[in-house]
Design brief:
Largest sheet: 7 strands, antiparallel
Number of helices: 6
Distance between the termini: 136 Å
Radius of gyration: 36 Å
Oligomer: single chain
């Protein structure tokens, strides 16, 4: 009986050994891997194309804006100056050298700092920190100033008048004119013409003014938002001439 059972047992072992084993087909895994890589490459290529289009578009925008500002400044000089050369130091920084007539300015240089629009994360950082677009004028005077002066303009605005009047305490609100805070213990007489110019309505737009005995003798910075057209540029150049005249008044 045992010998007769052997073929049956062997057949059962053969049948069990021939049962299929469920394994994932390798072709499916390879196809899925290739699809994910292709999708990633397509997405990366799309981002690169988008950034390239963004960069070239806003670079061109900055170049047009910088060129327009230089034209306003050149025309505002009433044919007393001309642009010698211009150079883009970066995508948002334009520098130009001017040649003025005699007894005006020597070695004049204009630097226009725009928003870094071509680079998105730098633009966001600049907007976050409220950095402004500016124009800086630097030049030497006929006579080097005998003083050293740095002037920075600060303006504080308040929109809380309604809250102040609603409180029980009585407030007296005044609107004073410009206030000068100085670190000098003695006010030099030669500073008066310069400060008087800065106290005028046209001088209020300047962000900073610097006088030095070394080159450049004069440096003044103006926000571009205040330089909207040729007439505004003419007012800016007029203030610069008054500052230069005031600094040289005692020579």
């Amino acid at each position: 009986m045992r010998d007769r059972d052997l073929p049956i047992a062997s057949r059962r072992l053969e049948e069990n050994s021939e049962e299929p084993v469920a394994t994932p087909p390798p072709q499916v895994v390879i196809f899925a891997g290739r699809a994910s890589v292709a999708s990633a490459l397509t997405g990366g290529l799309g981002v690169i194309v988008l950034l390239a289009v963004w960069f070239f578009y806003f670079t061109r925008y900055n170049h047009r804006k910088g060129a327009a500002v230089l034209r306003w400044v050149e025309r505002a000089c009433s044919h007393r100056a001309r642009v010698l050369d211009t150079k883009w130091i970066s995508a948002n920084l334009l520098q130009a050298h001017f040649a003025f007539g005699a007894h005006l300015f020597d070695n004049a240089r204009v630097t226009i700092r725009l928003q870094p629009r071509p680079i998105p994360f730098k633009w966001f950082f600049s907007l976050w920190h409220r950095q402004r677009e500016t124009l800086t004028f630097e030049a030497d005077l006929d006579y080097a100033p005998s003083f050293r002066l740095d002037v920075f303009r600060h303006r504080w605005l308040s929109q809380r008048h309604g809250n102040l009047t609603s409180e029980a305490r009585e407030w007296s609100i005044a609107r004073p004119g410009p206030v000068i805070l100085t670190t000098r213990t003695r006010w030099a007489q030669e500073l008066s013409p310069v400060v008087n110019t800065l106290m005028t309505s046209r001088g209020h737009n300047l962000l900073s003014v610097r006088f030095r005995s070394e080159s450049p003798h004069l440096a003044a910075t103006l926000p571009l938002e205040a330089l909207t057209d040729e007439q505004a540029a003419a007012g800016f150049m007029s203030v610069l001439r008054e500052l230069a005249a005031g600094a040289s008044a005692h020579h």
